[in-house]
Amino acid sequence: MKFCFSTLFVKNLEESVQFYHEIIGLPIKGRLQPNPNLEIAFLGDDEAQIELIHESGKDTIDIGKDISWAFAVNSVEEMYQFVKTKNITILSEIIEPMPSVKFFFIEDPNGMKIQIVTNHKPL
Fold first, then answer.
1. Tens of pLDDT along 52-62?
2. What angle do CA 2, 18, 52 make, to 5 degrees?
3. For the chain: N or C, fewer Cβ within 10 A?
């Protein structure tokens, strides 16, 4: 397994991108707006990235609930079957937002949301 990216919901995307780019020094990999209420920015390098997400109308950010860690695997389906045999809370079914990307979420023993993903290609 390989660590992919960390996701953080933010109150203000521009301010957050500026901080991580200008203060922390992370390169901006890309930005997208999948719908009018959602903006996403990826920062980092090819080894590790952060994903900043701004959702219109979301005024409160709870770091305990609004962050997830993603880990890459060769087969999401095999990993899904594997975690079903363990005492692990599965938070979602397998999701396929594009033909080349599949993922699902589980919960670690501390309640942290973990994303298991295949074919992640940084922007």
1. 999 998 877 77
2. 40
3. N
Minimal CA–CA distance to 123: which of 42, 36, 35, 12? 42
- Rounded Cα–Cα distance for residues 55 and 83 (Å): 30
Give residue 29's Cα distance to chain centre.
14
pLDDT in tens, 62-118: 777 788 878 888 899 999 999 999 889 999 999 998 888 999 998 887 777 989 999
Q: What are phi and psi of 94, to 5 degrees?
A: -70, 130
Residues with Cβ within 8 Å of 52's Cβ and at least 6 positions away in sequence, in order, are: 7, 8, 10, 13, 16, 17, 20, 40, 41, 42, 43
- The structural domains of the chain, with segments of one domain joined by +, span 2-118
Q: What is the pTM of this model?
A: 0.64
Q: Which fold has domain 2-118?
A: 2,3-Dihydroxybiphenyl 1,2-Dioxygenase; domain 1 (3.10.180)
